[in-house]
Amino acid sequence: MPKMIAVHSYKGGTGKSILATNLAYIYASYGKKVLLVDMDFRAPTLVVAFEFPKVKKYFNNYLNGECDLEDTFYDASHLVKHTGGELKVALADPSTEAIREMLIKTRKWEMDALRRLFAMKDRLFDELGYDYCIIDTSPGIHYSSINAIVVSDLALVVITLDDSDMDGTRRMIKELYNIFERKSMIVINKVVGPEAGPGSEKKKLVETMQRMFMEPIVGVLPCVCELTKYRRSRIFAHHYPRHPFTKAIKEIAAKIE
Amino acid sequence: MLSNKALPFEATNQLLLLNNLIYHIGVIIYCYTISYPQKMEPRQGVLAANREDVKEILAKILEALTRIEDALGDLYCVESEIRDILRGSREKAGEYLEAMKVLDVVTLLELPDHLRKTAVALSKLGEARAQDVAEITGRERAVESSYLNQLARLGYVKKIRRKHEVWFKLA
Measured between CB atoms, which of A106, A114, A146 is closest to B123? Predict the structure, then answer.
């Protein structure tokens, strides 16, 4: 069954974009038709990750009603050739002017944007035959991220073991996801020490977090120093298919599926 | 409190007319003052006052009229400013009221649970009948009809009658 997944977090810098990008890549490498959308309009990231040579239309333009949905798609299927999969990417406009413009949108615009997102979902799954749409959102409770959560089938929440992050996430689940009856799953990122390993410590961490959030923990991602060494333009799972980080994301992909 | 009634549009016109009238009287007096010595000899009726006295009196009148004209000009500016402020307030109030009625995600968060479900379904459809909303929410058509009417009364939704059907659309 096709799924729209909003990758969200309470705080910034938790690893949402890396998870969203690699998750999209993994599903596409399994032969699925995937669309990855950058809806972090305040700090667009995917434009750097994919480095498409000429971008004429951004996802902002679709939400503004300035172009058709497919005009914003850029093809990254060459990354998954021979798998039968398809990976398209819709980018957020990284220009300062566009970021500023998105910050001052009216409530009426946000309402129209929500309607366009619903229309996008219908078009992707009912007409274009997509299997997955993965949305990289802005952190925290922000218009665009709430819109993405309302329209998605699942909110994949990325947390770190930082106290303020965990506290904020708990409130966000209670005051946002639950209100919209949105199913959510949690990924713990940047875990260090034995809790990141395969032993009982990891199991204990998962149990504790599950009790705290009352939502399923679908992944524990180790803190990988190499990630910071490599340019974002290198899709980690593509270049390091056997790395423990890639394996952990594959496990998450399987649990969501 | 200031209101539009305190400064009706007619008042502005009257001020302008008075302003013009005073200006023209002033011009006539000024011309008369300048030309009088050359063109006319003082009539006997100008009584005992000599030519210099008349010139002085007329100059004083002209000065007074100029002051009145300036004051009226100032008054007109103030009135114009007040009108702008009132117009701005009305627009801001209008925008605020408009914003209050938008069914965005923040408004959705504030709605009671039963209405939120209906509102989210209508956000998806844009425009729908109670039956269409019921198909998404899985509730009875009559229930959705009642909730849609509640949203319409709250001003979030517009109710449109088309032949024998009632449609609802986002305001």
Answer: A114
Identify the domain containing residue B137 by its residue range. Answer: 105-170
How many folded domains does chain A comprise? 1
Q: How much of chain A, in percent, has pLDDT values that exceed 70?
A: 97
Of residues B80 and B96, the one with the higher pLDDT is: B80
What is the distance, to the nearest Å, from the Cα of residue A67 to the centroid of all Cα atoms in its chain? 23
Q: Per the domain annotation, does B1 fall within a domain?
A: no
- Name which of A108, A146, A180 is nearest B102 (Cβ-Cβ): A108
How many structural domains does chain B have? 2
Q: What is the CATH number of the domain that holds A147?
A: 3.40.50.300
Residues of A in contact with B116 (CB under 8 A): 179-180
Q: Is B96 on the interface with A (CB under 8 A)?
A: no
**Statement to judge: residues B148 and B121 lie in one domain:** yes
**% of chain A at pLDDT higher than 90:** 76
Q: Is residue B46 part of a domain?
A: yes
Interface test with A, best of B96, B98, B102, B104 (most A CBs within 10 A): B104
Give the pLDDT mean for A54-76.
Answer: 96
A158-178 average pLDDT score: 92
